[in-house]
Prior knowledge:
With 88 residues, the protein is an all-alpha fold. The protein has helices spanning 3-14, 24-27, 59-69, 79-87.
Amino acid sequence: MTDDLQHLMRLAWSSKAALAITPLQDLLNLGSEARMNVPGSASGNWTWRCSEAMLSAPAFHLLRELTDSSKRIAPRRTLTNEMAEARS
Length: 88
């Protein structure tokens, strides 16, 4: 992952926005071969797929660190709490 991407991710994760999102292809530092679609092209779009092996990449350590440090991990909710909220 490039330093520029890490910087942009840190900025996004440190924002007050409710969500912070980065494309998986960017997180994994994939090139144009992993592009989802090409605007204006009617064919060949939406063929890229993420493999299971890609999901064990070291880039996810940075994602976890950013998520922890920005306190974007919600506290675990119990099923009992969710059921009680649904009733009220």
